[in-house]
């Protein structure tokens, strides 16, 4: 394998190792909130965190940031575990939940109160917001800010004991209401919420806030480098403040480092929007093959290797930028070009009768399973008198530069003979029903005669007698606009691609009816396809188009 491409985070780690900062330890974490399915943006973070742990002989923790019970569910936990594993990463013994630290977090909050570094505020959310100020205007102290330590401890214990209604009190860190950084204006660190938690049940009616929980969870797990996206740059002073106050009780003070999040064209990346697409039926669930969730791209036909290649290729930096969807698709093409066996599928069949081919005759044509891998061998594709070709490979009145079949013209049937179109049969509406051809018996591929005559067109086909009918789902990009959030008057749903899913019945080589769920193939001249992992039944596969052979979206 090629060595990983360096980046600024690797430089920091290597410098830390030279300076002996962590005694050579590298401990990272991937901390999803279980409030939705993981998407391709998360994959960037997963590959980064697990990749660093792998390359520096450390470990990467998978930690559920489950402090917000109203939006969190076990279904999401399960799907996240499944997706990280599918991507090829292993958290070993380091599967953690922020909720496992609720007791500690509570204890540390009392510790802050005793130091005079936190207080119970009895203003409501509205009043707190009003006093918080704006970017240009400093905040104002709450009238409860100077409560005595003993009173704060008493109130906080009673908050925990369930004596107060939701929203009546909060615990706030006592930092600086005049700070230019709004995150430091006495952020709320605990609130009262009577909500059933998917792991701790009804044990708690107060829950810690993200910023307070996150840094402490990192410290308790002895994380060394806590990597997050750039939006958290302004939260870093709070991360450091909390750990500084608790330096006598937490085991270490991890370093928060920010990197640019993945922005990918032709898609939306926020969980809120993905949930909206699912709940309003714009897609067929979280794992709809058009979704950019990891469950979705998996069903679409993406391989874990292609996603890891993508993460490697886009790199890690401090500057926000957009990555074109074509980059992701190219990674899949590269991976599958190498590993997907070739097969023939006729997606839009047109019947061809070879007039001079004997009625009951049949012969074997040999097609390589991979054009660059002779060791993969060849398969037999039987030829007989009636075959199917693609409708698009015939034009009654050929346009300029069209080298496939038209009346009087010749093409090569791949792995077989040169044929010539002699007549066209239409129905009463002028619709083409079938065409008649003759073949030249001296031109069979692989024989000495094959080179005798050159023709420009080379098309795929299947013998009608052997072709199997299967369902094929032709997927395309879910959005028609590169920046869905920018168009449609701000409504990304106005950018949905109305032609992103087309279901068709195709003819395929007989062996494909034995395809197992998640078997991938290149359908020659069409693209890469995968047997759907949900809807494929024994002997009855359903294929999804993962990606076409070439990018037809332009740049
Ligand atoms: P969303 O904004 O889509 O709701 P989130 O950031 O709230 O996602 P989390 O579950 O909190 O989702 O994310 C877990 C980790 O994944 C975080 O460390 C976060 O920084 C990272 N992450 C999320 N989105 C991206 C992205 N687009 N690019 C890179 N990393 C991301
Ligand atoms: Mg989040
Ligand atoms: Mg977010």
From TrEMBL:
EC class of the enzyme, as a word: ligase
Domain (Glutamyl/glutaminyl-tRNA synthetase class Ib catalytic): residue spans on this chain: 26-337
Family annotation (Pfam families): tRNA-synt_1c, tRNA-synt_1c_C, tRNA-synt_1c_C2
TM region positions: none
InterPro entries to which the protein is assigned, alphabetical: aa-tRNA-synth_I_CS, Gln-tRNA-synth, Gln/Glu-tRNA_Ligase, Gln_tRNA_ligase_bac, Glu/Gln-tRNA-synth, Glu/Gln-tRNA-synth_Ib_cat-dom, Glu/Gln-tRNA-synth_Ib_codon-bd, Rbsml_bL25/Gln-tRNA_synth_N
Catalysed reaction equations from the record: tRNA(Gln) + L-glutamine + ATP = L-glutaminyl-tRNA(Gln) + AMP + diphosphate
Subcellular location: Cytoplasm
Assembly and oligomerization: Monomer.
Descriptive protein name: Glutamine--tRNA ligase
Organism in which the protein naturally occurs: Nitrosospira multiformis
């Amino acid at each position: 394998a090629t060595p990983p491409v360096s980046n600024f985070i690797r430089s920091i780690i290597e410098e830390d190792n030279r300076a002996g900062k962590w005694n050579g330890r590298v401990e990272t974490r991937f901390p999803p909130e279980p409030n939705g399915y993981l998407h391709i943006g998360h994959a960037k973070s997963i590959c980064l965190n697990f990749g660093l742990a792998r390359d520096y002989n450390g470990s990467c923790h998978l930690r559920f940031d489950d402090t917000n019970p109203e939006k969190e569910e076990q279904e999401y936990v399960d799907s996240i575990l499944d997706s990280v594993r599918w991507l090829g990463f292993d958290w070993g013994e380091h599967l953690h939940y922020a909720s496992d630290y609720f007791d500690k977090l509570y204890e540390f909050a009392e510790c802050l109160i005793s130091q005079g570094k936190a207080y119970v505020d009895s203003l409501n959310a509205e009043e707190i917001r009003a006093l918080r100020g704006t970017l240009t205007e400093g905040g104002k102290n709450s009238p409860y800010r100077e409560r005595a330590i003993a009173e704060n401890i008493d109130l906080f214990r009673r908050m925990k004991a369930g004596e107060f209604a939701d929203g009546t009190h909060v615990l706030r860190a006592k930092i600086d209401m005049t700070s230019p950084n709004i995150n430091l204006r006495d952020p709320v660190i605990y609130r009262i919420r009577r909500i059933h938690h998917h792991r701790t049940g009804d044990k708690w009616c107060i829950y810690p806030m993200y910023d307070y929980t996150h840094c402490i969870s990192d410290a308790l797990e002895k994380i060394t480098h806590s990597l997050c996206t750039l939006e958290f740059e302004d939260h870093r002073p709070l991360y450091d403040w909390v750990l500084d106050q608790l330096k006598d009780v937490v085991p270490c003070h991890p370093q928060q480092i920010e990197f640019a999040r993945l922005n990918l064209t032709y898609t939306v990346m926020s969980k809120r929007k993905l949930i909206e697409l699912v709940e309003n039926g714009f897609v067929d669930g979280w794992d709809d093959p058009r979704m950019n969730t990891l469950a979705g791209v998996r069903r679409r036909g993406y391989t874990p290797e292609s996603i890891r290649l993508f993460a490697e290729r886009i790199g890690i930096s401090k500057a926000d930028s957009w990555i074109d969807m074509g980059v992701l698709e190219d990674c899949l093409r590269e991976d599958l070009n190498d590993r997907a066996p070739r097969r023939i599928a006729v997606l839009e069949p047109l019947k061809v009768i070879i007039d001079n081919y004997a009625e009951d005759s049949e012969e074997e044509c040999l097609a390589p399973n991979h054009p660059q891998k002779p060791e993969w061998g060849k398969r037999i594709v039987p030829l007989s008198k009636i075959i199917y070709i693609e409708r698009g490979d015939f034009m009654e009145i050929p346009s300029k530069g069209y080298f496939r079949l038209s009346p009087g013209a010749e093409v090569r049937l791949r792995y077989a003979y040169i044929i010539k179109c002699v007549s066209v049969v239409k129905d009463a509406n002028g619709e083409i029903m079938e065409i008649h051809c003759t073949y030249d018996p001296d031109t069979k591929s692989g024989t000495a005669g094959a080179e005798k005559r050159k023709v420009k067109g080379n098309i795929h086909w299947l013998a009608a007698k052997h072709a199997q009918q299967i369902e094929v789902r032709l997927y395309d990009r879910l959005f028609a606009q590169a920046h869905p959030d920018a168009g449609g008057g701000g409504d990304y749903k106005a950018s949905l691609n109305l032609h992103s899913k087309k279901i068709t019945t195709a003819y395929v080589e007989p062996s494909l009816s034995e395809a197992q769920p998640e078997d991938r193939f290149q359908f020659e001249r069409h693209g890469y396809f995968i047997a759907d992992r949900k809807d494929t039944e024994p002997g009855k596969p359903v294929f999804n188009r993962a990606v076409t052979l070439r990018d037809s979206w332009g740049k």
